[in-house]
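Predict the assembly for these four chains.
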Amino acid sequence: MSGLEVRGLAVEVPGFRLGPVDLRVQPGEVLAVLGPSGAGKTLLLRTVAGFQAPARGRLLLGGRDVTAEPPERRRVGYVVQEYALFPHRTVLENVRFPLRYRPERGRPPRFTPEEALRFLGIEALADRRPATLSGGERQRVALARALVREPELFLFDEPLSALDAPAREALREELRAVLERLGVAALYVTHDRLEALVLGDRIALLDRGRLVEEGERGAIFARPRTLFAARFLGMENLWPGRVEAPAGEGRRLRVRLPLGVLTVAPPDERPGTAAAEEVWRPGMRVTVGIRPEKVRLLGEAGESPASPAENRIWARVERVTPWGAFDRVRLDAGVPLVADVAAGRLSEAGLRRGSRLPVELPAGALHLIPDDGGEGERTDG
Amino acid sequence: MSGLEVRGLAVEVPGFRLGPVDLRVQPGEVLAVLGPSGAGKTLLLRTVAGFQAPARGRLLLGGRDVTAEPPERRRVGYVVQEYALFPHRTVLENVRFPLRYRPERGRPPRFTPEEALRFLGIEALADRRPATLSGGERQRVALARALVREPELFLFDEPLSALDAPAREALREELRAVLERLGVAALYVTHDRLEALVLGDRIALLDRGRLVEEGERGAIFARPRTLFAARFLGMENLWPGRVEAPAGEGRRLRVRLPLGVLTVAPPDERPGTAAAEEVWRPGMRVTVGIRPEKVRLLGEAGESPASPAENRIWARVERVTPWGAFDRVRLDAGVPLVADVAAGRLSEAGLRRGSRLPVELPAGALHLIPDDGGEGERTDG
Amino acid sequence: MERKSPLFLLFWLLGGLLLLFIALPLLELVLGQQPARLLAVAGMADVRAAVALSLEAAAATALLGAFLGTPLGYLLARRSFPGKRWVEALVDLPLAVPHTVAGIALLFTFGRSGPVGRLAAAAGIQFWGTFLGIVVAMLFVSIPYMVNAARQAVAAVDPQLEMAARSLGAGPGAAFLEVTLPLAWRGIASGVVLTYARAIAEFGAVIVLAYYPETAPVKIYELFLSGGLADSSAAALLLLLVTLGSFVLLRALIGRRAGPQP
Amino acid sequence: MERKSPLFLLFWLLGGLLLLFIALPLLELVLGQQPARLLAVAGMADVRAAVALSLEAAAATALLGAFLGTPLGYLLARRSFPGKRWVEALVDLPLAVPHTVAGIALLFTFGRSGPVGRLAAAAGIQFWGTFLGIVVAMLFVSIPYMVNAARQAVAAVDPQLEMAARSLGAGPGAAFLEVTLPLAWRGIASGVVLTYARAIAEFGAVIVLAYYPETAPVKIYELFLSGGLADSSAAALLLLLVTLGSFVLLRALIGRRAGPQP
């Protein structure tokens, strides 16, 4: 296969152990490796780039085993924080750099330096020095330079984390667009869940050297399988509960929580796995979670209950914090409850601190996490 | 008056000139000073703290003229990036530090060190060294230390900007809560508009040493008076236009824009200013803006047109970027159009890239900015 | 993964050669001694007096250097003032002054007919051929080390800490003594050790300004001229061991590598 | 707003005193000369030969030092290896070795009966009393400056730039030559200038290993012993001017302050 394949990779450096890690990145796919600082993200990236020898395991790049190859024999486009442009050379000289080390000098490169500059819309910068460029221009030069290397894989090591918020937002979208146009495989390391969400087709979650969870970006945000993932990905509402009984129809369950008994509708399991009734047995201890943007405040203007009276509770508004396009509302429903609502809708509906209002927790938005331990358990407390 | 009063303040350093700046901060009020890097925010803060002598103007703190006083004679709680805790002292020693330099040794301090630690819930950290603390713990220690100083004003110099996104979000909310409980005057400098929005009761916008605009946080976000403010505060949709005629009833106007003629309903002007019809004369050149979260996609699930057929245009979905609690939708309506919608609602409604759908730009959400120049003009291009 | 390229093999080779060039002479000095001779020389009263004098003068120089050099280091790290670049150049100047030239220049100033010498003579103080003269010569050649170490130590302390102290009510002096000095002291202490080492090593400036009383390097040279290599090398080894011993002891006391970082 | 506290007034006072201590002897050396005597000494063939020899030997030392010291500086900046702390201590060692001790240790090794001396003699090369011996003595005392300057210059180049070069296809040698060296060269060049200045200043180690041919510091000392202060101070001023002149010229060539930063 093409792209990247990581098999049973383990890396050991003094005081830290990474792995074993198994990963695949297909051409045209971006895998975001997300985790807190100290999780081993950069170590993983440097091992793939060839700057760190693994203790065990294999790395395949474009189907070729490169485990023993030095960095200059691996075709990777390595893009780091602040972009590592050569400051003593012009933009064009930077972009030409890889050409001098091509083993197959006969064949014309897939991207000439000039084509790479044009592809990224920065022909006009050719004679500038990196020090005179803006953050966005540097990112484009770094991408152009990597393109001329004809990489089989792009590696990104938090390229945006040194930028301030407005620049980061703009470059994040631009990078996404460029990666889509290129259709190359990429591994993108970040500690920022929003960056992982914007840039990753799939997300792999790394914690203290271990690959905790991996999945399609929508799935891993909506249905994390561990408490660690749920917390790290911003599922603000998480309560311990116990499965009471199937709720009658189909896959619906009733779960007892600190704020009462709620109906939960787990999504269809994937083919080949057990049906919901069998997985979630009555009496089982679980954690129930709901993302704040899925919580519906029924007093909110324009909101009407979807299925009447189901999972409806009363709560009091404790604090409303503006958050840009939405407001984060902290409520007291016996237990703390966090909801995100469109900016200003709450005050338009006449609700403020101290208001009591009905809240709906849609059965389909409630998510179950088993309490059988795993990576999540350690952070529970 | 109590709090801070800045009158005609001008500061000159080699290569940069700040001011003249006039500001007031009342007790219990947080004024966020927002601006891009290089705007002079930190210089302003250092001048208020007493580390930089102004070229002109006066500073009043608690009604007392402190323009000529050195920093140690001004009662300010100065909290900087990474918090500047004394690394060679324990938490308690840090918090006790200001007591040794109190001029009025007889009177008991309003907060003893122990009370300050308790107020911030960090009694347990008293014997720890700063190096062993988390970011949130450091913030609390810095606040406790400043409290013992009995400041008449808190000064914050981007304390959160060195933190990563999840920590920043958590500490932002916590800081807001502490400031509300204290009810002290505060000046909060930041380049992050979200931080200004969360923490500032009022926001002052600084650009290249000049105070561009100042106002209540909701007003300045919804109704910026300059193009610079509109852009910097995230009003993504801004189009040049020309006033056609009053739209009949009351204050409504008709404005010709690249995407057609729209009805605009400017909010009531404040008492004492001219009525809308007089300010926005037919033929006048204006910029019309709308915040992305105010744009209504009518194909979106659960949305129904508020006032039928008014300001309705057709647009095609170009790109949908997940943005956490919402999705940012870039549309083509002849001109580019940006809308923020609740996360996932677009795909729930079966809309994706290439879909065409009706879009409503509510007349009350459209905002007018005069083209008569001012600070905004320079960034127009 | 770091393969050995031909260039880096050459680097290791050249680096090793250089290390050998430093280590071999010192090893030879140790291995070439007859223990009996070493003991005999160590028992000579004038050799012992010379070594003791070197240690005392170097210690006095280092302390005086710290007292005079730390304030200047602080000012260079924290303040901007007109002519700062010239002051920095002046501080570094003694490094570029050949040692005997320094000695003669000091003799011109601190000698009996020099401006400082005459003033001092009126107060009954003499530099030429005295302990004070040795300290003056040692201080002149070693002061750049002290000032630059202090400057770097102060510069490494975040100025925001001083600003925080000021805002919490401490005056500028209190902020220095309570915050900057405790945080910079290790760096300043390394500067003191470095100054001490440079002072004990000095020969050219000392021999011109104060041949007598004889410091150890002067005594070794005298033995070399009169008695040849055997006695002088025994004395040299003795001085080297005493110097390195005190150097290592001082480094251990301040708890970190105090080597120079030019 | 920065008020003068009593502590900082003391700082300015002590700092000024120290600057005066450096400047005054050099000023005295200049002002105390009779121009006629200076011209006469400048016309003496042996003085001119000594100055020229000093310049040549110091230049040779600086170039040799750069060739041998830069690789070691690179390895210390970029690689970790067992015993690295000992290697760093060894590199700094010559700073703590008294100058005449260094001369005697070098004589033990490079002299006629020393291990290197015997080997070299078989190849017809002699160190004792030759140009080569002068260079060996100068190199020994100045090598820490060169290695540490190169180490800092390399350490100041972001290692990510080398990694970027490697990932773009350059081998380790090419990454060094194309990226690290061009970015570090100014720092390395300052090290060369520093090494040159330290080499030209040396007296103690040189006079033991190679009294003849006479370098300028040796010649000045000889004039001081024989003719007294007048001739020797004229020669001293001459050497100082030539040394500082070449030093300033080199600094200007590399385009920045090349002073030591210990």
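The longest strand of chain A covers residues 312-322. The interface with chain C takes residues 50-53, 70-71 of chain A (CB under 8 Å).
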